């Protein structure tokens, strides 16, 4: 189950801490740089990365030694796949302000693409500098999980949640970990917490439906999967898993309906899944099942 939805790296904007390396006589230049950086943040959040990059580069003309600008430019370059420039600006930001937690975190996350040990080092540095940095705890938890250190991973993700209760990313990761460990009760509890934060999160409803199936809570499973579809009528996995749920409970017409809805969204993918999925065994031999897998007479999207 997947549920992570994020901009993983941090974008810095104007604050008193961002004036590292500047004297009072530079205030006019700082104001100009700050204006460009503020506009860059708007573009970044709108995923207009080229425009954001142009604004940060203009800001750097006025404030070439402002660490936050180099940090931001590194993040923008990384989003565009320009990894060489990203690394160059992250390193420059780190040179200008070696203890800045945002820089340490962003560099650590960037280096995660190139090896867990290097990323782990910079994230530890981040948390040594600022132990109340929830994103660093969350990514540290993900790294520890990849390294097989499950209990430490759960502990790190728990710290991320304590420090930033409204951020659902750590809860989704914890839910996935508990699911993979076979602890469906704990997985469901994390999903319930997510839904208290955002009751319209279709991924959380879908995953809660799967957890309920494993816990043999049939009514809750059906309700959760239907809620996911209510929020997103074209949610492929929710239709497919609801078809499986209905098939296993001998509700053949409802199963075929949702299988048809899933196939209308991705006929080839659904055919590949369905041919191997024993949860749909009660549909085999039904002419409508064969029609769906062959893409015939599917419901409109």
TrEMBL record:
SMART domains: TPR
Keywords: TPR repeat
Any one of the GO BP annotations: protein O-linked glycosylation
Gene3D superfamilies tied to this protein: Tetratricopeptide repeat domain (1.25.40.10)
UniProt-listed PROSITE patterns: TPR
TPR repeat spans: 67-100, 134-167, 202-235
Pfam families named among the record's database cross-references: TPR_11, TPR_16
One Gene Ontology MF term: protein O-acetylglucosaminyltransferase activity
Keyword Nucleotide-binding attached: no
InterPro entries tied to this protein: OGT, TPR-like_helical_dom_sf, TPR_rpt
Source organism, top-level taxon: Bacteria
NCBIfam families, sorted: TPR_END_plus
Protein name: Tetratricopeptide repeat protein
Taxonomy of the source species: Bacteria, Bacillati, Chloroflexota, Chloroflexia, Candidatus Chloroheliales
């Amino acid at each position: 189950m997947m549920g992570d939805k994020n901009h993983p790296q941090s974008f810095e904007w104007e604050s008193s801490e961002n004036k590292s390396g500047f004297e009072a006589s530079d205030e006019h230049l700082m104001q100009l740089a700050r204006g460009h950086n503020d506009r860059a943040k708007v573009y970044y959040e709108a995923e207009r990365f080229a425009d954001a990059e142009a604004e940060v580069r203009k800001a750097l003309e006025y404030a070439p030694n402002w660490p936050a600008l180099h940090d931001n430019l590194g993040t923008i370059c990384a989003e565009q796949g320009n990894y060489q420039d990203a690394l160059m600006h992250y390193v420059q930001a780190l040179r200008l302000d070696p203890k800045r937690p945002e820089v340490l975190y962003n560099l650590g996350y960037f280096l995660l693409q190139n090896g867990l040990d290097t990323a782990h080092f910079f994230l530890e540095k981040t948390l040594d500098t600022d132990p109340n940095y929830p994103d660093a705890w969350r990514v540290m938890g993900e790294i520890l999980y990849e390294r097989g250190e499950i209990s430490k991973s759960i502990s790190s993700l728990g710290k991320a949640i304590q420090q930033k209760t409204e951020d659902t990313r750590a809860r989704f990761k914890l839910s996935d970990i508990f699911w993979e460990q076979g602890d469906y009760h704990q997985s469901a509890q994390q999903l319930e917490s997510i839904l208290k934060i955002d009751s319209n999160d279709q991924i959380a409803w879908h995953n809660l439906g799967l957890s309920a199936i494993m816990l043999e809570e049939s009514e809750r499973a059906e309700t959760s999967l239907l809620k996911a579809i209510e929020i997103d009528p074209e949610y492929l996995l929710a239709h497919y898993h609801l078809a499986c749920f209905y098939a296993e409970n001998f509700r053949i017409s409802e199963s075929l309906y949702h299988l048809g809805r899933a196939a209308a969204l991705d006929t080839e993918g659904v055919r590949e899944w369905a041919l191997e999925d024993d949860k749909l065994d009660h549909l085999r031999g039904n002419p409508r099942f064969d029609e769906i897998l062959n893409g015939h007479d599917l419901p409109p999207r």
